[in-house]
Amino acid sequence: MTFLDPIITWLVDLMSVIGAPGAGIAIALENLFPPIPSEAILPLAGFAAAQGRIGLVEAILWTTAGSVVGALVLYALGALVGAPRLRKVVDWLPLMDADDFDRTLAWFERHGGKAVLFGRMVPIFRSLISIPAGVARMSLPSFVLLTTIGSLIWNTIFVLAGYLLGANWHVMEQYADVFQKIVIVAVLLAAAVFVVRRVRSRRRRTPADA
User: Fold this and answer.
1) Which of 9, 26, 72, 107 is the most buried (most CB within 10 A)?
2) Which element (helix H / strand E) includes 107?
3) Are 41 and 23 in contact (CB under 8 A)?
């Protein structure tokens, strides 16, 4: 048993009581609290649709609406923090400087649309991608449209899987868990490479500066 089990149980009960809107609320909360696995909630909503407790299209639409609402909250948080404040925080972090933030922000301004669209289909990043979109003040209509499209694709895949798998809906959670672990390992490797390169770069600069 994990600390998330009571939360997931509560969300399942919520779906049982109020149906598809409950699935939408659950997914909105998953966006705000990424440890809650959408990979468990979405197939379960599909299973509920297979049993006739909620409509299949209704489940997909409500979960997508929940995704957009949760993403908008995080977008607003990013916009509230703003680039100037975040730039100061990055400049304060070890091995980081303000130029790193400026380059990242410039990259997001060029490729933010693709990042939001495809980021909605990557575990962990599907929630967090909304924050840099808010920091960069990405066009709100574009953000909502791309978030809706990406969320609709992701949610449809998992809801349909739960619908087709029936009582074996939890199989999708296992595959998604493997995918999430791959993403985490890739992020850790990228972070390790960054740290090694940054340390070497600063060691080379130190004698010259002295």
Assistant:
1) 26
2) helix 98-119
3) yes
